[in-house]
Design brief:
The chain has twelve helices and 16 strands. The protein has about 500 residues and is an alpha+beta fold. Among the domains are: about 120 residues, PAS domain (Beta-Lactamase), CATH 3.30.450; about 160 residues, Reverse transcriptase/Diguanylate cyclase domain (Alpha-Beta Plaits, 2-Layer Sandwich), CATH 3.30.70. The longest helix is centred in the N-terminal third of the chain and has 63 residues. One of its GO terms (molecular function) is diguanylate cyclase activity.
Length: about 500
């Protein structure tokens, strides 16, 4: 019996050890494949993005190269530029410069006085190179709007073959920022777009300060890309010294690189969490086998069976209980806290404010002209609109102590403990801007831009002994919301008591 137990124990340990190692190896290989596939997918997206821009520039250059544009035709040319920009969401602007770098035409509303772009890198490049292909430059800050953009330019040539100017399209960095934000990744995982010379164009989740920095020392550029145009590998990132599993792909038409990196620590943590129960159960089985197997083997089997059944029943009941509790406090459509959780949290926050004499703020928000949206697009689209607004609010930078909730219908609410009117006003403005940034079309709204917007009203105070209760607190915030609506909507109004 003892020899049998020893043999069985060794077998169990060996099999479980091999199984765990195989599971870990398969997890890493699957992550390599996932990273490579994601990078290839993003490379295709980037290639399509710049191909559309190239076609647009080529068409514009074909229309104007080699022939003068009369002054009475200039407005028609500007209309063409504006029309092309409206078609492509990635475009920040379209511009045409003459041979001296002076602004000739733009998709914008006005041309700055004495504007000249002869000092820009792309202009110097085309003036000194007769290359007919497009040129993609480093990220620059737009002189007309101040936004970060990628300059994509094409040389204009006169009938005599001389340099006649530059046609420029600027691709918004925010276009890639928004597209990359759609992917659900861990906080330390990254998605990046780079120039072939290792210059950073945009990397999620790093700040814009890394843009235009060089990663020439990264293994991506020193080894990986020299071996193959696309692939995967694990190395320490040159940006933050974190080890990641990278997938990378070089664009076929353009000198650009796309990379997707999964943080290895997160992968290992998830693998440990997935296999922890298996390890615990295996060790428990071995311990029970050694302690009880020497006495009554039959009784051991019965006891273990009963124990496992009770454990499973307890876990099932616990899971069901947690699930029911979560469902009772979460809005089923948006995934935000529901009205019940909001009421409980607001009451607790007011009590805490009164006890600690710390400020508390409440922001009430309402989707502008939502009934018109439902009438125009239908209730299914209305539900999708509510989901997108909820996602935008949920992704606002906030503390764990804050609560973002769906108050009811098209109304949302945010409770900000330990927050005074100044910070509440900033938060409300960020909420308004975040929803506006979605860019969801709303043809029936009275708000300029014809997109879905919200109005926000906040109320802040330190609850005193006779301070406002939850009902009065909400009424104050509602009054601020009404002021925002009367002020033209698509804005936030903040008050305090």
């Amino acid at each position: 019996m003892v020899i049998f137990l020893i043999i069985m124990s060794i077998a169990v340990v060996g099999i479980n050890g091999w199984t765990l190692w195989d599971s870990y190896d398969r997890t890493l290989r699957a992550t390599h494949d996932q990273a490579k596939n994601l990078s290839v997918s993003l490379a295709r997206q980037a290639e399509d993005t710049f191909l559309q821009v190239e076609i647009t520039l080529t068409d514009i250059a074909r229309e104007i190269s080699g022939k003068p544009v009369a002054s009475d035709q200039l407005e028609a040319l500007r209309s063409v530029l504006r029309g092309r920009q409206a078609i492509l969401p990635q475009l920040h602007g379209l511009f045409i410069y003459d041979a001296e770098g002076n602004w000739f035409a733009t998709s914008g509303n006005t041309i700055p006085v004495n504007a000249n772009n002869a000092d820009r890198e792309y202009f110097i490049w085309h003036r000194t190179h007769a290359d007919p292909e497009i040129h993609i430059g480093k990220v620059i800050r737009s002189r007309s709007t101040g936004d970060l953009v990628i300059p994509v330019s094409l040389r204009l040539t006169s009938r005599e073959g001389r340099f006649a100017g530059v046609a420029l399209a600027t691709v918004s960095i925010d276009y890639f920022r928004q597209h990359y934000s759609y992917y659900v990744l861990s906080e330390r995982s990254l998605l990046g777009l780079f120039m072939a010379d290792s210059t950073v164009m945009y990397v999620r989740p790093f700040p814009d300060s890394v843009i235009n920095t060089s990663l020439s020392s990264s293994p991506l550029f020193t080894h990986a890309l020299k071996a193959s145009a696309s692939g995967s590998g694990a190395w320490r990132s040159a940006m933050d010294n974190e080890v990641r599993i990278f997938g990378y792909a070089r664009l076929n038409r353009y000198p650009l690189i796309v990379a997707a990196g999964y943080d290895k620590r997160d992968i290992q943590a998830q693998w440990r969490a997935d296999n922890l129960l298996s390890v615990v159960l295996s060790l428990s089985l071995l311990a029970a086998l050694f302690l009880l197997g020497f006495f009554v083997l039959r009784q051991v089997r019965v006891s273990m069976k009963n124990h496992l059944e009770m454990t499973q029943l307890r876990d099932d009941l616990t899971t069901i209980n947690h699930t029911l509790q979560a469902l009772a406090l979460v809005d089923g459509l948006t995934g935000l806290a529901n009205r019940r959780q909001f009421d409980i949290f607001l009451e607790q926050s007011l009590q805490r404010s009164a006890r600690n004499q710390e400020p508390v703020s409440l922001i009430m928000m309402d989707i502008d002209f939502f009934k018109r949206y439902n009438d125009a697009y239908g209730h299914v689209a209305g539900d999708e609109c509510l989901k997108k607004v909820g996602e935008a609010l949920l992704h606002l930078p906030h503390r764990q102590s804050d609560l973002i909730a769906r108050y009811g219908g098209e109304e949302f609410a945010i409770v900000l403990p330990y927050t005074g009117i100044k910070d509440a006003a900033k938060f409300a403005q960020r909420a308004v801007e975040a929803v506006r940034a979605i860019g969801l079309p709303h043809a029936e709204t009275d708000v300029p831009g014809k997109i879905v917007t919200i109005s926000a009203g906040s109320y802040s105070c330190i609850v005193k002994g006779n301070g406002p209760d939850a009902r009065a607190f909400k009424e104050h915030a509602d009054q601020a919301l009404y002021q925002a609506k009367h002020s033209g909507r698509n804005c936030g109004i903040s008050t305090e008591g």
